[in-house]
Design brief:
By secondary structure, the chain is mainly α. It is about 80% helix and about 5% strand. The N and C termini lie far apart (about 140 Å). Strands 1-2 form a two-stranded antiparallel ribbon. It has 2 helices and 2 strands. The protein is elongated, with a radius of gyration of 52 Å.
Length: about 150
């Protein structure tokens, strides 16, 4: 029988260690290759789905831009109409406003003048002032008003 020397044992241990290491590396590389295949398939699927979505999004953006242009045109037309209405109201106010105010003031003056000259109308009763639930006679009220005017 032959005895195994320490160097041979060390060589066997190193060979086993290298075999285990290569086995682990082979398994890791196989899993990495499997992951890369799955990633490649996923990217291909995303690309197949993203291209039509991007085309639809581009169409939607163009349509939105067309609608925005239409709304902008409508807004500018509304602004022009508002400006014209403002100018028209200013013109109407300056043309008819002054004479209407004068006619109303004249009518008020005539009513007031005619209202004071009627003899068939009874004179209004003096107004009474209520203070904290009491009625103040007209004579005292006039004194209070006179006092308030002096201050």
């Amino acid at each position: 029988m032959r005895t195994v020397s320490g160097g041979e044992v060390a060589g066997i241990l190193v060979a086993v260690f290298w075999a285990i290491l290569v086995s682990f590396l082979a398994v890791a590389l196989a899993r990495l290759a499997q992951t890369l295949r799955a990633t490649t398939k996923l990217v291909a699927d995303v690309t197949d789905q993203a291209v039509p979505l991007l085309a639809d999004a581009s169409t939607a953006v163009r349509s939105a831009q067309t609608q925005i242009d239409r709304v902008d045109a409508i807004a500018s037309d509304v602004q022009e109409v508002t400006s014209n209405a403002s100018a028209l109201s200013t013109t109407v106010a300056s043309t008819f406003g002054g004479p209407l105010v004068k006619v109303a003031a004249f009518g008020y003056g005539v009513r007031r003048a005619l209202g004071g000259r009627r003899d068939d109308m009874p004179a209004k009763a003096p107004r009474r002032t209520v203070i904290v639930g009491r009625t103040v006679p007209a004579a005292r009220r006039e004194k209070r008003n006179a006092r308030g005017k002096k201050d």
